[in-house]
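Cross-posting from the modeling subforum.

Setting up a comparison between two proteins and wanted a second pair of eyes on the formatting. Protein 1 (sequence, then structure tokens):
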Amino acid sequence: MITAQWNPAGPTPGPGDDPVRKPPTGQAAVPEPAGSRAVVAKPPTGPPAVGPPTARPGPDRPGTARPPTARASGRSGAVSARRQHGLATRHQLTTAGVPGGTIASRTRPGGPWQRLLPRVYLLQTGPPDPRRRALAAVLYAAEPTADPLSGDTAVLTGGAALALLGIRDTPTTPADVLIRAPRRLAPAPGVRTRATSRWPGTMTVSGVPTARPVRAAADFAARTEPGAPPDRIRSVLAQVVQAGWCHPHDLHAELRASRLLARPAVRAAAAELLAGVRSVAEARARDTLEATDLPTPLWNARLHTSDGAFLASPDAYWPDEGVALEVDSAEYHYTRDAWQATLRRRLRLESHGILVVSATPAMLRDTPTEVLAALRAFLDLARSRPTPPRALARGHQQLTLFRTKG
């Protein structure tokens, strides 16, 4: 899991109902999307980067800091390096008493420290992981005298921020970092800074200050190149909403504030989310159904029994006829446990009089006429049934809004 600490600053989002998943408050565990492997974000396990070493250093011990000089053992430098996963800025090191010559000596080729970005150093050997690279970008962009972990002068956003939350298909480089306008920074390898006068609410993900997911998603859409895969924006925005990181109405408002709804791909993805669609497979199914004369279904409707117990949430549901469409992809449904859960859900629906049509994304893409024929036959059959389905639909899935203070 990934630990995230919430900072409820920023604009107040719009209304919502029927909460399904609360966003993180304080410390929260963020699950990976279904079918993917959880990533566990842990604090660095190596010795403090500045201060007394815990193991004898040497060329055969990668990732271990060498003994610092007397002037390099200042308390502020040691505390900064521990908080920052072994990273430090030049300002932090010199403030801690590390001479410039020592910094240059230790960052020479083959030395125990590495210069990741201008004025940003990793105080150990070994390649940095994506989390450290993301934090290095924030340290580079933050004002030298400010606390870079506060999120007051620089925050990660866009694809790199979403990747820390486990959102798939998000490029981690270049790392997009917001800074406060009118400040400007020189370009740096693998970092894109953007000055903004509309500072976002922030949160801390695995020790890295980031923009709230709703803003990070909008910044990702803004920076996606026209030549990117056509469904990338669709997939990423759907994952952010499906994971519960923002409400579709909040995302729509942020995309509008960022002036992105004029882009056809962004506008289409936002409209699908407002309709209740929560995945690319469902979006393609919706495209297929909208090209026919079939009635418009509810997407991700929450079905309940007559006594109020939750029954299931089919991908598409026709409440008047009691017909459901389930789009079962191999990625999420074809492990043994997932397949059995899918069958049990179908049995629950059928036991309450609901007719279920199951299809894969490939079937909807390659043989849509067969799927549509089955749906049409079930809809016609349902209209002549003497017994209506025993389930109540409560509209498409709604998520808890992010509430802010002050």
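Protein 2 (same layout):
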Amino acid sequence: MPVPPVADVMRPDLDIIDPEPARRRRRSFMVIGAVMVLAGAVGFAGLLNASGERSDVLALARDVSAGQKITADDLRVVALPEDPGLKPMAAAKKSAIVGRRASAALSQGSLLTSAQLTGRGGLKPGESLVAVEVKRGMAPVDALRPGAIVSLVTRPQEGDVTGTDQRELTEVSGRVVKVGAPSSSGDVVVQTAVPDAASAAVASDASAGRVAIVLKTGG
């Protein structure tokens, strides 16, 4: 029986497959995917722009303590969509704000509003600055900070008789602007913002050493 040639036995009858079309299809899918991602990003940006006009406003670049003078480095400009419910300070007012003081503690990243500011001297309209020298033990000196809300209470003079016509300051609300260093006797001068109408009475009683300072809750 004749033996077939070796070449006919070893050669399989298989189709030759070219892998190149599969690679080309994968590249096509990658290109299409990239185009779709780019189109989505452009569409999202368009929606943001269409959501409303944006304006430059001021935000805090770092924490600012109550009573601290605001510097240019404390502020940064951010762009926000206009919202009637928000009333942040416009970026154009930055130069006018530098040098004013914070009426309360301000946190980094928060928007700046006019209600968070006091005058360049630490005073609001209708306030006067009074230096109150308090005796040792008549104020929680270690707890007093600029911006703290306090009550100024006048103690009776020695020998005062109840029911006399002598004018007496009972209690006046105020706000700490600055706390001085204690003297050798332990007395401390506290610069306090008080209403204009009460400033003369506070100054008079403070000069007599009769004023005590009470730190209010949340102050």
